[in-house]
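Section 5.1 Outputs to date
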Amino acid sequence: MHFPKRLAEIRKERGLTQQLMADQAGVHVSQYKRYESGNSQPTIEVFQRIVLALNVSADALLFEDNERGPKDERLRLQFEAVGKLSAKEREAVQTLIDGVLLMHDAKRYTARVSG
């Protein structure tokens, strides 16, 4: 589902009218209707106000449910499990991931410099 459909769907779930959303976004209702119809796209500033009015993340409006997460099922399950760890354990996992990513970047950099 793309942005216009998600926008209308979430607005309706929240029980908000197009007029109220337009007011919260600081645009005319006819302009807001263009967003939901897909005939126009909001500016970043207006998009931010829409996200705040709907109380959702920007990702919720822009991406499908599984579009942003890991594609590998095993990795996705591992990340879900990490979410259940204590703050200290999550920090340790994040440090480990940061280290692996830095090693990867260093390898890419040295390959580029020597190649």
